[in-house]
Every structure is written in C-alpha cells, then in structure tokens.
Specification:
Blueprint: H1 26-39, H2 44-49, H3 53-69, H4 74-87
Helix pairs in contact: 1-3
Length: about 90
C-alpha cells in the first residue's frame, strides 16, 4: 500500500503523536490552557512540541509575546504556520 500525501487525497500520517490532555503533566496542561485561551484550541503543532517541555515552554512564551504585540492576529499566524508546513511537506 503506497502512502499518498493529504493534498493528493490520500491518508495523512503523522510521524509523531502529540501529547494529549490526559497524558500531560501539570505544567504542560497549564501551557495548553494558555494556548487554548489565545487560539481557541490547542493545535497539533503545540501538542507535538509538548514532547519536549522546554521547547513547548519557550515556543509558547515567544508566541505569547508576539501575540501581545497585536501586530498580526493569532489566527492569521496559525494559518501562516499551516501554509508553510504544507509548502515544505510537513505531515501535520
């Protein structure tokens, strides 16, 4: 069975599964709560970053700082991340 990309109508396969709420530690859940408050949900990219807590913490801090600047809406930034991921062939 061959794997086709999601853009070709095939099944999308993630190389790594993200951390789910029930599997997250206290500090990770706290960061997920902050992300959900800002974006309305916890995107898969954040769940994957949660596999390394320090990476998640630093990414969330930077993202919150940029979002506080108010220059670019958070939803537009998320859309840009998804577009870049699709352009470089990232499976998520």
């Amino acid at each position: 069975m061959s794997r086709r990309g999601a853009a070709e109508g095939g099944m999308q396969v993630n190389r790594i599964s993200g951390i789910q709420d029930k599997d997250a530690g206290f500090r990770t859940r706290w960061i997920f709560k902050r992300i959900k408050r800002r974006l309305g949900r916890v995107p898969l990219s954040a769940r994957i970053r949660a596999c390394d807590f320090e990476l998640l913490r630093i990414w969330e801090e930077m993202s919150a700082h940029v979002a506080d600047a108010g220059r670019i809406p958070a939803k537009l930034k998320e859309l840009a991340q998804v577009k870049v991921a699709a352009m470089v062939g990232c499976p998520f």
